[in-house]
Design goal:
Blueprint: E1 3-11, H1 17-27, E2 31-43, E3 46-52, H2 55-66, E4 73-76, H3 82-95, E5 100-102, H4 120-127, E6 133-134, H5 138-149, H6 158-169, E7 175-178, E8 187-192, E9 197-202, H7 213-226, H8 231-247
Parallel strand pairs: 1-2, 1-4, 4-5, 5-6, 6-7
Antiparallel strand pairs: 2-3, 7-8, 8-9
Helix pairs in contact: 1-7, 2-3, 3-4, 5-6, 7-8
Bound molecules: pyridoxal-5'-phosphate.
C-alpha cells in the first residue's frame, strides 16, 4: 500500500487540516500518516484559538516516521510560524522525500490568519524550492508575489493566473497550480510545469459549504502522485475528486459546512 504523510494543522470540526487530509487519503486507498504543526479550536463558523506545536516535537514526529516507514508523498499545509517552517525544512533536507505537495495555507475562509505575516518570506525561501508542486489560490499567489516583488500584484484574469504561475515557478517549485476558485464563472485551475500551461476546467457548484476544499485538493494530489500518476493526471483526478466532494458537501453546523469524502 502507498503511504502518504500530511504535515499540517488540526481542525477540531474535522472539515479542514489534518482531518480532511486523512479522510482524503482513506478515500484514495492510500495509508495516511500525520504530523501536527498546530491545534486549532475551530467550527464551521470560525477559528477561535490556535496553539502551535513545539518545533522539537514536530522534528521528533518527522524522525519517528522517516526512520521507520517509506513515504511515497508528503502534503504540507498550515505551518504557522518561522521556527516551524525551519524545523520542517531541515528535516526534509535530512530525509529528502519525493512528491512534496505544498499548500501555502494563509487565511481561513472565515478570515483567521493561519500563517503569521512574518512567516511568508520563510515559506518562500525554505519550503517553495523543496515542493514538487505548490497549490496557491489566487489570494495566496498574490501574497507570495507581493512578498517577493514588493509590488501590489492583482490577479484578475486567467491570463494573470498563467503569468503568476510562471513567476512563482521561478521561486523553485517543480510545478505550480493556481486555483481559480476565487474568480467568478467556471472554476478554472492553471498548472505550469516549467514548459507548458495546462488549464483544468470544472463547473462551479453553487454551495456555501466549501470548508476544507484547499486541504482536500492538495491531499488528493499527493495521493495520486503516491499512486504513480503524472502531475497532470494527478491534478485532473484530484480536481474531479474535489468537485464531487463539494457537490456532496454537508450541511453541518451553522456556518460553512465541510466537503464530503468518498470515491
Ligand atoms: N484549519 C486548518 C488547520 C487548515 O489547515 C486550514 C486549511 O486551509 C483551514 C482551517 C482553512 O480551511 P478553509 O479555509 O477551507 O475553511
Amino acid at each position: 500500500m502507498k503511504k502518504v504523510l500530511t504535515i499540517a494543522g488540526s481542525d477540531s470540526c474535522g472539515g479542514a487540516g489534518i482531518q480532511a487530509d486523512l479522510k482524503t487519503f482513506s478515500a484514495h486507498g492510500v495509508y495516511g500518516m500525520s504530523i501536527i504543526t498546530a491545534v486549532t479550536a475551530q467550527n464551521t463558523q470560525g477559528v477561535f484559538a490556535v496553539q502551535d506545536i513545539d518545533e522539537d516535537i514536530i522534528k521528533a514526529q518527522i524522525d519517528a516516521i522517516f526512520t521507520d516507514i517509506e513515504v511515497d508523498a508528503v502534503k504540507i499545509g498550515m505551518v504557522s510560524k518561522p521556527s516551524t517552517i525551519y524545523a520542517i525544512a531541515r528535516q526534509l533536507e535530512k530525509y529528502n522525500p519525493g512528491n512534496i505537495v505544498l499548500d501555502p495555507v494563509m487565511i481561513s475562509k472565515s478570515g483567521y490568519s493561519l500563517l503569521q505575516p512574518e512567516s511568508k518570506q520563510s515559506l518562500i525561501k525554505e519550503l517553495l524550492p523543496k515542493a514538487f508542486v505548490i497549490t496557491p489560490n489566487i489570494p495566496e499567489a498574490e501574497e507570495m508575489l507581493n512578498a517577493v516583488t514588493s509590488e501590489d500584484i492583482a490577479i484578475k484574469t486567467i491570463e494573470d493566473m498563467e503569468q503568476a504561475a510562471k513567476e512563482i515557478y521561478r521561486l523553485g517549485p517543480k510545478n505550480v497550480l493556481i486555483k481559480g476558485g476565487h474568480m467568478s464563472g467556471e472554476a478554472i485551475d492553471v498548472l505550469y510545469d516549467g514548459q507548458e500551461i495546462t488549464r483544468f476546467y470544472s463547473e462551479r457548484i453553487n454551495t456555501k459549504n466549501t470548508h476544507g476544499t484547499g486541504c482536500t485538493l492538495s491531499s488528493a494530489i499527493a495521493s495520486n502522485l503516491a499512486l504513480g500518476y503524472s502531475i497532470k493526471d494527478a491534478v485532473s483526478n484530484a480536481k474531479r475528486y474535489i468537485t464531487t466532494a463539494i457537490e456532496h458537501s454537508l450541511e453541518i453546523g451553522q456556518g460553512v459546512g465541510p466537503t464530503h469524502h468518498f470515491y
